[in-house]
């Protein structure tokens, strides 16, 4: 029984090969310059294995090495573009402006309360995370607006998920702010209310 299945498979492969030969002959007649390459790849198993082995896209290998440009001017230009992106976000996105204002208030309050080093690190990382999420949200929205001008369900999903990510980060920052600031503010609040 397995021999019959194997024979059927060989017969099918033979039919496919005949069809490919027919297509190849028609392409040769039509004068296609690349028809010879197609027949070489289709019929020469060893050449096909060699190409798969050395083709970086097929084998999943990284793109061949390209020289890195270490010029200082290129580095300065890269930073210039990055600052332009941050400035665009702060200038055009209302939520980014609100997050920046809240972050500045948190930093001023942390300075007044003289937070410990670990509290400062947590606070600055949280502010940075919220602003970075807002930047990704802005980039996703701009990309979706560039790609499509009509209402599409997947465009809505992309924008909603990006906005939801910012909401999650902002909620976490409020919780962390409470954990950091409440122990420092509680004695001050009880002192003001007790008078």
Could you name the key traits of this structure?
195 residues, mainly alpha, Helix Hairpins, 2 domains, 85% helix, 0% strand, elongated
| Overall 3D form | elongated
Binned, the helix content reads: over 70%
Helical segment tally? 8
Computed Rg: 31 Å
Corresponding CATH architecture of the largest domain: Orthogonal Bundle
Write the H/E string, N to C. Answer: HHHHHHHH
Work out the count of structural domains: 2
Highest CATH level, the class of the largest domain: Mainly Alpha
**Model regions low in confidence, pLDDT < 50 over at least 5 residues:** 32-48
Describe this structure in words.
This protein is mostly helical and 195 residues long. It has helices at residues 2-30, 35-43, 45-54, 56-59, 72-92, 94-113, 117-147, 153-194. The chain has two domains: 2-59; 94-194, Orthogonal Bundle (Helix Hairpins), CATH 1.10.287. The protein is built from eight helices and no strands. 9% of the residues are buried. Mean pLDDT is 80; it is low at 32-48.
